[in-house]
Specification:
The strands form 2 sheets. A 5-stranded parallel β-sheet has the order 5-4-1-6-7, sandwiched between helices. A two-stranded antiparallel ribbon has the order 2-3. Helix content is 48%, strand content 12%. It is of the alpha/beta class.
Length: 222
């Protein structure tokens, strides 16, 4: 993916992750559905489980964008399981956590595909100009802790000055509070907001959210 992002007229660069820098491994979601189904003994056809997982993934993502809040990963699991007639009263946090650890292992085995062309070189150019970079991502099934592990594995973490994930601060883009968090973490406290460029693929969460806050914004089109 080529871009014409102008790195000369901004001092700080904020990047969305999903569908901006990376996309899911083509096999990961199907593998996760199989794991989900077997781990929780779901007595439904795998197609129905897959459909239900996708429905709640999309729904929770939309709710997070509309309310600016953040639905917890475990709450998402419980909604899906409840919808699939699994008795969720039998479950506890330890069991949900055990599943999360297994799904994280799966995620790091079927790692996302980097779609941003020559992202290492691009980040290198930014850093060589003495400029700074952050990741700003809404999360759902995959928490910020897992994304950090992935970015370390991809040798991208070395370029990133700070990370902000919605599950860690309990708010989601386009909520101005999450963009405020970027501002709070800037090394240069006097940097004008327009000198911060947020780059993402979502017209509402990324582009409008950043613009409304006062940042510059770049909408990536695939």
């Amino acid at each position: 993916m080529k871009t014409d992002i102008d790195i000369h007229n901004h001092c700080h660069f904020s990047f969305d992750l999903w569908l901006t820098l990376i996309k899911s491994h083509p096999e990961f979601k199907a593998k996760r559905v199989e794991l989900f189904s077997s781990f929780f003994n779901v007595d439904k056809p795998i197609e129905e489980v897959a459909k239900t997982v996708k429905y709640y993934d999309d729904l929770c993502n939309t709710i997070n964008e509309v309310t600016g809040g953040n639905i917890d990963t475990f709450e998402m699991y419980l909604m899906i399981l409840g919808s699939l007639n699994v008795d969720i009263k039998e479950l506890n946090k330890d069991t949900l956590n055990e599943f999360y650890v297994k799904s994280e292992d799966l995620f790091l085995e079927y790692r996302p595909v980097v779609i941003f062309e020559n992202v290492h070189g691009f980040f290198e150019d930014i850093k060589n100009q003495g400029k700074t970079i952050n990741i700003l991502s809404n999360t759902g099934f995959i928490k910020g802790t897992t994304m950090r592990k992935f970015l370390i594995h991809e040798n991208l973490d070395q370029y990133i000055d700070f990370h902000i994930y919605s599950d860690e601060i309990n708010c989601s883009k386009p909520n101005p509070l999450i963009f405020q968090e970027v501002k709070n973490n800037l090394l240069d406290k006097n940097l004008p907001l327009s000198q911060v460029l947020h780059i993402g693929d979502n017209p509402v969460a990324d582009y409008k959210g950043a613009k409304d806050f006062g940042f510059s914004a770049y909408l990536l089109k695939h």
